[in-house]
Structure formats: C-alpha cells, structure tokens
Specification:
- The protein is mainly β.
- It folds into two domains: 63 residues, no CATH class; 47 residues, OB fold (Dihydrolipoamide Acetyltransferase, E2P) (Beta Barrel), CATH 2.40.50.
- 6% of the residues lie in helices and 31% in strands.
- It contains one helix and six strands, in the order E-E-E-E-E-E-H.
- The longest helix is centred in the C-terminal third of the chain and has 7 residues.
- The chain is elongated and about 60 Å long.
- The two termini are 33 Å apart.
C-alpha cells in the first residue's frame, strides 16, 4: 500500500515506527500513531526497511486525515511555475503545483485547464 498520491513519485514508505514485538518467524508488530489506527500493525519483514539514523536527518510527521477506506484528500497549495509543452501539432499549457503533504522537490506538472476547472481559487 502506498500512502499519498497513487503515481510514480508517490512515497512508498512512511515511518520510522518502533518495533513492539516479533510475531512468528517473519513478522513484526509496530507501534503506529493513532492517525493510522485503521492500518493493521503487523508487517512482514520484506515490507520493512532498516532506518539508518543521521544527525542532520530531521523527520517531520504531518498528521494525515485518513478516511475509512485508507485514502485521503490532497489539496493543492499553490502554483509554482507555468510553461507550455510543445507537441508536434499542438501546445499544452502546464502548471507546476505544490500539493499538501509534499515538499517543493515533489511538485508535479499538471494540465492548466484541468487545474482551473477543479481548483479555480489557485488562479
């Protein structure tokens, strides 16, 4: 399961979380925050990654408002850049959008018409 947008650049891992106990030979029980109470807290070893701490690595955990079906609504915060994508026979206006729960490096190019129809307050 991926948390966040369901696209190529979606975050595949969240955490780190404390391991509470070992369940069987290949599973661990994790201490998950209350915001992830709908997620089963036992994971296979193959789904976990070791966390290598670094002094300059500061984790900022924003609280996600998850629905019952483990999805959440992302809203765009602002438009960072505008450009025109030139194809052979047509041009497509594009905007670079900063989404909620994402950093500046994770801003995504979206179609201008689509964003204007869905989120007119950005324009």
């Amino acid at each position: 399961m991926r948390f966040g947008k369901k696209e190529k650049l979606a975050p595949r891992f969240i955490g780190p979380f404390e391991i509470l106990e070992r369940v069987g030979a290949v599973a661990y029980k994790l201490a998950l925050p209350p915001s992830l109470s709908d997620v089963h807290n036992v994971f296979l070893v193959s789904m976990l990654r070791k966390y290598h701490p670094h002094p300059s690595h500061v984790l900022q955990c924003e609280q996600l408002e998850l629905r019952i079906d483990m999805s959440f609504e992302e809203t765009p915060i602002r438009i960072l850049d505008r450009k025109v994508k030139q194809l052979r026979s047509k041009t497509i206006p594009m905007v670079k959008v900063l989404w909620q729960y994402h950093d500046l490096e994770e801003a995504i190019q979206e179609r201008k018409e689509e964003m204007r129809s869905l989120y007119p307050y950005l324009f």
